[in-house]
Amino acid sequence: MKMDRPPHLKDLEEDAEKQPFLPNYLLFLLASTSAAASAEFHATVREHGLRVPEWRVLACLHDEDGQMVTRLAGLALMEQSRLTRIIDQMDARGLVERRSDALDRRRVRVHLTGDGRILAEEMVQRAAEHEAALLSRLPDGKGNELRRLLKEVYRQFSGEAD
Amino acid sequence: MKMDRPPHLKDLEEDAEKQPFLPNYLLFLLASTSAAASAEFHATVREHGLRVPEWRVLACLHDEDGQMVTRLAGLALMEQSRLTRIIDQMDARGLVERRSDALDRRRVRVHLTGDGRILAEEMVQRAAEHEAALLSRLPDGKGNELRRLLKEVYRQFSGEAD
DNA sequence: GCCGAAACCATGAAATATCATACAAACTGC
DNA sequence: GCAGTTTGTATGATATTTCATGGTTTCGGC
């Protein structure tokens, strides 16, 4: 999604006619910050001929090859049926391949091909570089503080805390 | 988007065959946390007959009625052409209406109708309640800490810091 | 072992998003 | 005030996403 420059939240706050809601709404702050932080790198992703969901799949498989479709969809933040079709395309492009799980034949495991792995490694490398550049814009330590906090909050909100 | 239960990040970390990338990648943590935090409320949104982008538009107009299309698209995290069509639908449903700006006739200002305002107020109320419920799952103060940090980081990453 | 239920993945049909571009209005420098 | 540029919004054609559901395979209680 090609997005314009993010708007400034302050502008909303300046309209004092009544209590503004969004500038302090956590879900909005999370979504906006995520979008603002990702915009640049997502442009890079597209320049490499990938769409964002495809990049997410590559990154997930980079960390753990051969994941099943459902879990991959969860990690890559999309619906299962959408992932199925994205796998179709990535398969047709020779980036991944499906193998059925011998122990549970309902499951389909998605594996990187050689080309897929090369591309995944390159993109992960670029992502890491971009992340470093992003973090360098923040005061020292802020980045790690944010990471720690997000991990903790994710744990709570995703039910991992059970 | 109807999503399954979020996966547990730890699982990725447990695969020690090599350095996992995602569990510490800031953009991934932001996107995953945002998705996990929003999932419940987004279900509520759909139960009220709204899609997420429509809810975002209502929330934006709740804070500042009569915004122009471009800015609304930026705040609601979508492309302009998509917002144009969403406005079409919300207009047809009687939730918003377009008025052209007298001073700059290129601009189209989007206003809540009476019904739109009623729905916006109700949803904002529910969002606030849901947010309170979410925050109550976190240790005291974590929520505010996260908010402060996100605001600061958003400022940097969106270029508002210039 | 059998039966109903649940988990996993794929798919059709309809709705939606995207990209490029068109169109209109407002600026800019002259 | 005019030509060229930029800004703001809409739209057509295409590609994608979604929802509901179908087909398999496994699970659980009996």
From TrEMBL, chains A, B:
Transmembrane segments: none annotated. This is Transcriptional regulator, MarR family. It comes from Tranquillimonas alkanivorans. GO terms for molecular function: DNA binding; DNA-binding transcription factor activity. The keyword DNA-binding applies. SUPFAM superfamilies: Winged helix' DNA-binding domain. The keyword DNA-binding applies. Keywords: DNA-binding, Transcription, Transcription regulation. Pfam families: MarR. The lineage of its organism: Bacteria, Pseudomonadati, Pseudomonadota, Alphaproteobacteria, Rhodobacterales. Coiled coil: none annotated. It comes from the Bacteria. Residues 23-155 form the HTH marR-type domain.
